[in-house]
Amino acid sequence: MPRAKVTFQDVDVSVTVPAGTRLIEVSEKVGAGIVYGCREGECCTCLTRIISGAENFAPPSILEEQVLKDNLAPRRHRLACQAQILGGEIVVVPA
């Protein structure tokens, strides 16, 4: 099974996770500073800046794209509750 290395720059922690894991799940396990409200991709509370490795996530869903647009999220930002990790190396920080 493919794996990914995820680094949370705010807490200087790196972990290896299986592909298919959502970013918010990893954040909770390592105590990173990504907060969330709904976990459904509607509130934009878990907005996260992708420092590197954006190509290692599944493309945003239509819902995520709309929420990012409605909230004027900058480029290279994703909703941690929706961002599914595919593999490779990723570095993130709460927005």
Concise description?
This protein has about 100 residues and is α+β, with helices and mostly antiparallel strands.
How would you describe the overall organization of this protein?
The protein has 95 residues and is of the alpha+beta class. The chain has a single domain (3-94), classed as Ubiquitin-like (UB roll), CATH 3.10.20. Helix content is 18%, strand content 29%. The protein is built from two helices and five strands; from the N terminus they run ββαβαββ. It has helices at residues 23-30, 62-70; strands at residues 3-8, 13-18, 47-52, 77-79, 88-94. Strands 2-1-5-3-4 form a five-stranded mixed beta sheet, covered by helices on one side. A hairpin with a 4-residue loop joins β1 and β2. The longest helix is centred in the C-terminal third of the chain and has 9 residues, at 62-70. The protein is globular and about 30 Å long. The relative contact order is 0.31.
